[in-house]
Specification:
Layout lengths: L1 H17 L10 E7 L6 E7 L7 E5 L5 E4 L1 E6 L7 E9 L7 E8 L3 E2 L3 E4 L10 E5 L2 E2 L6 H9 L5 E4 L3 E2 L8 H14 L4 E3 L7 H10 L13 E5 L2 E5 L13 H19 L6 E5 L20 H4 L9 H7 L4 E4 L5 E4 L2 E2 L2 E2 L15 E5 L19 E5 L3 E7 L4 E8 L5 E9 L8
Parallel strand pairs: 10-12, 11-13, 12-14, 16-17, 17-18, 18-22
Antiparallel strand pairs: 1-2, 2-6, 3-4, 3-7, 5-6, 7-8, 7-9, 10-24, 15-16, 19-22, 19-23, 20-21, 24-25, 25-26
The structure holds fe (ii) ion.
Length: about 425
């Protein structure tokens, strides 16, 4: 440690001899957490308008007894202004399961952030993670944000899943809209892991804002658009549905994701005794009963069946064959719960309870946290697989109670936080449906 501090001191001294530290805008901002590669790690990402040359996180259970050095990325926005901002990424290591940590980030010479606290996840599969899920939340009209913030500060969640479409858009106004958004979510994202997947609103400059502003598991050295992580009894998989639509950035990415999915799902299935649930999240749904002519309204959606005519790379079959339990989607600015479905056919568990040992995955669309594009409407007559739908602003709460029971509820912001939908999914056996 003493050696590290000496090196920091030397680096800072040299820097301050050449530039005036006091004239720089180097206060850490937009601070957010995300899960690391395993339960002993937690990533911290933050931003500074000017460079600091060093990026540190000090943390510990009782005071700042541990320190890690991160890296600073010079991120140049692809717009006409070519605005430069500095993104700092560090991974806290040697975390104890279930322990409450204090941390701050920044630099001993350039300044530290305020202090934040988080509780590290348990490694154990025998606990009940509580998660808030939503998509499509912007700077303007972020209807769910105040309630989500209050929930988070009251300790109601272990993690947040933002299922694509941030800020509207992060690249707008040379990236200042992205800066504002990351500041808006900091009260939540600095105390809970803020887990993400890319949406269509992140498309500009080959998803550069998404890739630079977030750091997801397995992404310490790269810009991955898909990843997985374990949390209690769940194996979560985050996918990019955008590969199907923005092929100008390389169709190979779609196939690379598909090959990765095969191996990740195979490994997850071997581990189902320990982590029985497999839950996926991606931005654009395979099914929906909205009236906006999006991909999910089509008979053969791209995400569901893959590349037209050759039908390669579709997600429905591989998720069905590998026994995915629940798929979360967003993109539609509404909420929709589906009956268990495969290939457009309903496979309910029983006549009295569709969600008791269902014979196909359950889809949930939760894209109504609020943005400047407001709501998406529905077709008048729901499809046979549509169990419940609402265009109220809101978000989803999930508790994975144990190996057999998973509880979901939908919060309506339009109705003052009322629960407008509930589901208890019971699976006494997990695995392939085919
Ligand atoms: Fe979208």
């Amino acid at each position: 440690m003493a050696k590290v501090e000496l090196l920091i001191h030397l680096a800072v001294t040299v820097t301050c001899l050449t530039i005036s530290c006091h004239s720089l805008s180097v206060q850490p901002e937009q601070i957010h957490l995300s899960y690391g590669d395993d339960a002993t790690k937690m990533a911290v990402t933050w931003s500074t308008p000017d460079p600091t040359n060093d990026s540190f996180v000090e943390y510990g259970i009782n005071g700042f007894s541990q320190v890690v050095m991160g890296r600073m990325i010079k991120f140049v926005d692809g717009g006409t202004g070519a605005v430069v901002r500095y993104i700092h990424k560090a991974v806290m290591t040697a975390l104890k399961p279930g322990a409450k940590y204090v941390y701050h980030c920044g630099s001993p010479q350039y300044g530290w952030s305020e202090v934040f606290y988080f509780t590290n996840r348990l490694e154990d599969a025998n606990w009940s993670p509580r998660i808030a899920l939503f998509g499509d939340m912007g700077n303007i009209n972020a209807q769910s944000l105040p309630r989500l913030q209050k929930d988070a500060e009251m300790g109601m969640y272990d993690a947040i899943l933002h299922v694509g479409d941030f800020a509207y858009d992060m690249d707008s106004d040379n990236g200042s809209i992205g800066d504002q958004f990351m500041k808006q979510v900091q009260p939540i994202a600095s105390i809970l892991p803020y887990m993400t997947c890319p949406g269509n609103h992140e498309e500009r400059y080959n998803f550069s804002h998404y890739k630079n502003r977030f750091m997801m598991p397995g992404d310490e050295d790269g810009h991955s658009m898909f990843y997985s992580f374990d949390l209690g009894p769940v194996h979560f998989i985050s996918v990019s549905t955008e590969f199907y639509f923005y092929v100008q950035y390389g169709i190979l990415q779609l196939f690379r994701q598909y090959e990765w999915l095969k191996s990740d799902l195979a490994a997850a299935n071997k581990n189902r005794d320990k982590r029985p649930w497999i839950i996926t999240f991606g931005h654009r749904p395979m099914y929906c009963s909205n009236n906006d002519h999006d991909d999910c309204t089509r008979y053969e959606s791209l995400v569901r069946v893959g590349i037209p005519f050759i039908e390669i790379g579709g997600l429905e079959k591989i998720f069905y064959e590998n026994g995915v339990d629940v798929m979360f989607w967003a993109h539609e600015h509404s909420y929709e719960r589906l009956y268990p479905v495969f290939n457009r056919k309903v496979y309910n568990g029983s006549i009295t309870d569709p969600y008791l040992n269902p014979k196909a995955p359950v889809h949930i669309i939760t894209g109504s946290a609020g943005c400047q594009e407001n709501h998406d409407g529905f077709i008048p007559d729901p499809r046979p697989w549509s169990a419940f739908r609402s265009d109220d602003y809101g978000y989803t709460r999930m508790t994975v109670i144990n190996a057999t029971h998973l509880y979901l509820e939908q919060v309506s912001d339009d109705k003052g936080g009322q629960i407008i939908d509930k589901m208890m999914l019971v699976k006494e056996r997990h695995g392939s449906y085919s």
